[in-house]
Amino acid sequence: AMRREPDPPMGLPSLLAGRQRQTHEIALKPGDRVLMYTDGVTEARGSDGGEFGLEQFADYIIRATAAGELAPETLRRLIHSILDSPTSRLRDDATILMFEWTPPTR
Prior knowledge:
The protein has about 110 residues and is of the alpha+beta class. It is built from four helices and two strands, in the order H-E-H-H-H-E.
């Protein structure tokens, strides 16, 4: 897992953020997945009125990956689980990006 302290929001100039943006590098192995998301995803409200939350979000991704679910299907099901409740609502922009490294075969 590549866990790093988050940088300031993309639209915020680094002069106002108080520090320079950081660049991170990691070597991916075949089958590795990279997941990026905005806080609008974890702050989405579910049918019970509570936030979807980081713990539930991470648990969902971990379980789907362990079950061998393909990245597009994982995201499709996750998005539906967040939005399909009649009372669910987003309080902020919600963006999820997941990609899987599959090197070309020769």
